Amino acid sequence: MTPSTPPRRDHLRPQPTGHLATALALASKGVPVLPLRVGKAPFNNCPACVKNACGGRPNMKQAGPCACPRPCHAWAAATTNPELLRSAAWASAWRRAAAVAYHPAGVRLTVVDLDHADAITWAHSRLPPTRTVPTTRGQHWIYLGTVPSTNGVRPGVDIKSRMSYARWLGPGTGRLTALPEVIRALAVKPAPARPVPETATAPAPHGGGSCPHRTPAYLARGIAMAEQSITDATSCVHNAVYRTFLAVLSTHGRCGCLTDAHIARLFTAAQAKGESVRHCTDAWANARSALGL
Q1: pLDDT tens, 137-168?
Q2: Among 135, 133, 78, 145, residue whose Cα is nearest residue 105
Q3: How far apart are CA 165 and CA 36, in angstroms?
Q4: How far is CA 98 from the centre of its chain?
Q5: What is the end-to-end Cα distance of the chain in Å, rounded?
Q6: Alpha carbon distance 237, 240 (integer Å)
Q7: Helical H runs in 30-187?
Q8: Angle (CA) 120 143 130, round 5°
Q9: CB within 8 A of 157, min separation 6: which ones?
Q10: What predicted TM-score, i.e. pTM, was given to this entire model?
């Protein structure tokens, strides 16, 4: 007589509902997920992890900063492990969760978060069509590829990819396309200038007002670093020139402190690497357009 097969333990578990059910469905497809509390924020670290007392590193490049079983460390807590998602350590967070978030770079994606109608208009004029997800106030445009996450790259535009999370608002519509160069360029953060002990003030920008950079040495060092960045480029020179122009304009393009002499220095460095005057002019114009200048 053949003994009957005992029921699988999974059958004895209550079926998940709500945000946990959504999280488990995403995790089964390889999407790292985590719960969000009211206000679209991750849950606070537990007492053992508060202020990274556990040794967790908030600027780490991979998930899993410590052995804590709770959803600590914000984006780094995102997981595809169904047992962890169902665990008692996460149960309280799921009971209080207001939304599900995912780690875009964990599935090789970048989310361009467009927060209002003007940002959406800019995206339609500057970005290639891709998968689109409606949000409360705007849209998420999702692209294949990853970049550093950067908020406020333009008015109402945030980039969420590496070391970040985005709310799950549904699969969206449209086919995923490759991450465009304009988003890669916007994600580049200008290198900070070292403080220089100088008291002279920088010239006022065109149209009046005081320059926020305080000293001419700040601008001088920024231009010198930009020239060096172009000179050091060993491949993809055109892209390197564009990214450098974008970085300079993002820091100095709105106050009026850039002069024709500064621009000529950048163009000269680019031409020394083989760029034509027309290429330089186009890259400068594209960088200005990307920043809305």
Answers
A1: 999 999 999 999 988 888 999 999 999 999 99
A2: 145
A3: 10
A4: 23
A5: 83
A6: 5
A7: 82-86, 88-96, 117-126, 181-186
A8: 55
A9: 112, 113, 114, 115, 119, 122, 123, 186
A10: 0.62
Rg (CA), the chain: 24
- Secondary structure letter of residue 129 according to DSSP: -
280's tokens: 């330089």
Exposure string (b/e) for 68-100, b if CB count within 10 Å is 16 or more?
bebbbbbbbbbbbeeeebbeeebeebbeebebb
pLDDT at 13: 58
Per the CB < 8 A criterion, the answer to whether 74 and 45 are in contact is: no
What is the token pair recorded at 225?
A: 């670093």
Tokens at residue 164, please? 């970040």
Indicate the helix (H) or strand (E) that contains 37: strand 33-37
pLDDT category of residue 92 using cuts at 50, 70 and 90: very high
10 pLDDT band (50/70/90 cuts)? low
* Token pair recorded at residue 215: 């000293």
Both tokens of 188, joined, read 């580049």
Q: How far apart are CA 242 and CA 224, in angstroms?
A: 16
Q: What's the average model confidence in pLDDT over 35-50?
A: 90
DSSP-derived letter for residue 145 is S
3-state secondary structure of 169: coil
Yes or no: say if 162 and 148 are a contact pair by the CB < 8 Å rule: yes
Reading the block at residue 88, the tokens are 């008692």
Instruction: Check if the beta carbon of residue 58 is closer than 8 Å to that of residue 73.
Output: yes
